[in-house]
Amino acid sequence: xxxxxxxxxxxxxxxxxxxxxxxxxxxxxxxxxxxxxxxxxxxxxxxxxxxxxxxxxxxxxxxxxxxxxxxxxxxxxxxxxxxxxxxxxxxxxxxxxxxxxxxxxxxxxxxxxxxxxxxxxxxxxxxxxxxxxxxxxxxxxxxxxxxxxxxxxxxxxxxxxxxxxxxxxxxxxxxxxxxxxxxxxxxxxxxxxxxxxxxxxxxxxxxxxxxxxxxxxxxxxxxxxxx
Length: 227
Prior knowledge:
The protein is α/β, with parallel strands linked by helices. The chain is built from eight helices and nine strands.
């Protein structure tokens, strides 16, 4: 059985249908609605099982202010839990030394509440934007759902894993369903290089790589560069 929209059949399993029916509250339902819409817009080729999800952390989840944090808390209290291994991006405070650093108590409390919600949902509190330096090593061909920009580039290129650049809600959808719509970098044909960069000079300093990345970003646009 599948959900039909705009002539596209979105094949949902029974668990996802129960979420979409509101069995786990409005927050989880809204997340699934976003996932379905992403599937439709991109004409996805089914779903891919994800071995790992990387969520935005509290500074991103809280962009919506009180509403964003309340959304996360309601989701955690709904009884739903993450199905896939889920790690977290950097947190915006020092969780142990925030007082010594002069961080306002109200801000720290809200951030820690969001941290508690993510842990309650089943996230592994890695709090890093470079999870591959903290033991998170995907295998070649693994499907992932990552939000962190540098992480997306690194796992796609260095490890040969597969992830699109996810947003907060779409990554949450993958965390609670264990799946992601199969389009973009999840498809072999979409991973082929489109712009060959033939580098003639030696890069010696970190700033050399920064400058190269900035320049290539300007000329490549949405094309996939190969160095």
